[in-house]
Amino acid sequence: MSSFVVFDLEFTTWSGALERDWAAPGQLREIVQIGALRIGEDHTVVEEYEALVRPIVNPRLSSYFTELTGISQRAVDRDGLAPAEALGDFLGFCQGQSVLSYGNDMVVLGENVGWARARGEEVKDGFLAASFLNIRPWVNTLAPVTASANVGRLWQVLGLPRPGAGDEHSALFDCRSLAAALRHLCAAGATLPAGCL
Hints:
Blueprint: E1 3-11, E2 31-40, E3 45-52, H1 63-69, H2 73-79, H3 83-94, E4 98-101, H4 105-118, E5 131-134, H5 136-142, H6 154-157, H7 171-187
Parallel strand pairs: 1-4, 4-5
Antiparallel strand pairs: 1-2, 2-3
């Protein structure tokens, strides 16, 4: 059976960072949480992946980030993986798959892999064994009401049942929201872009 992966990242941020494109000194988009779902041909969840990651340059999370995501400093300090370990595990989860995100999260992923390798850390597995795609333009074209919605609100703007426990800006919940939107659009007759299955 064919499958594909949807993923979402939560990364370090501060008030106004999005508007400034993270251009303030020292404000890097370091990954703090990775969420991913492997989706089967029938659009059911086959497997999930979730990890907290300890940022290196900004090990202390901003209060803005914590309020936005609900991810506490204590949880990251206690359960966070080293970046290279989390990145390698996630890329292993993606091997041989089409990997879809609602936006350019693959760019942030690439930045973090680059920083880990620049520090001399080994990131097992890599990008070449997976095919990454920003599915947002496809979703927004088929359902224009989604154009201004973040990934965690897709289920809501499409009038779908809540896709499980959690809230937006939690990576795994955001993945469930995206998966629900894709399932809904495909059930209405849409076909995922070529190469997704």
